[in-house]
Amino acid sequence: MNPSPTEHEDPHDVHMAHAHKHTAAGAQESHATHAMSAQPVGSKSHAGHGAAHTDHTGHERMFRTRFWVSLVLSIPVLAFSPALQRWLGFRAPAFPGSEWVPFLLSLVIFGYGGVPFLQMAIPELRNRRPGMMTLISLAISIAFVYSLLAQLARLGEGFFWELVTHLTQFLVNSEHEKQQPPRLVQRLSDQRLRANDGNGA
Prior knowledge:
Blueprint: H1 11-37, H2 41-52, H3 59-79, H4 82-88, H5 101-126, H6 132-152, H7 160-200
Helix pairs in contact: 3-5, 3-7, 5-6, 5-7, 6-7
C-alpha cells in the first residue's frame, strides 16, 4: 500500500506553511484595521450626526396637505370678515349665524394647521432653545386667544382673517423649508468629499 502524501511531508515544510497562513491572515486583518482608521473623522461624525438627526420624513407632505385645506377654509373667513367687507366695499350673504363663520372656521384652521407648530415648539422649549417654531406658535396663539375672547366677550372684532392668512403663509413657508435641508446637506457633503479627495491627492 502506497504511503499517503502527508506521511512524506517534511515537518519543517509543514511548520513554514502554517506560519505563512497565520502571517497572511494577520496582514489582512491589519489592512482592514488600517482602512477603518484611515476613514476621515468628519465622515464618522457626519454619520453620527445623521443618526442623531430628527427624521423629518413626511413633514413636507403634511405641511402641503394642511396648507391646501387651510387655504380653502380661509376663503369664507376672509369673505365674512367685517373689516375686509368695509375695506373692499362688498357685503357677504347674510344668514342666521353668519357672524360666527370666521370664528368657527378659524377654530378649525387653528386646530388643523396650527397645532403642528405648537407640537414642534415643545422640544425647542424643553431644550431651552427657542427657534422658529416657538415664534410661530407664539404669534398664532396670541392672535387666536385674543380673537376668541373678542368673539365670546363681545370686545370687538378679532384677528380671525389675520390669523388664517398668516397661518396659511407659515404652512407654505414651512413646506419649502423642509425641501431645502436635504439638498443643502447633499451639496455640503459633495463639497466636503471633493475637499478630502484634494487633500488626499
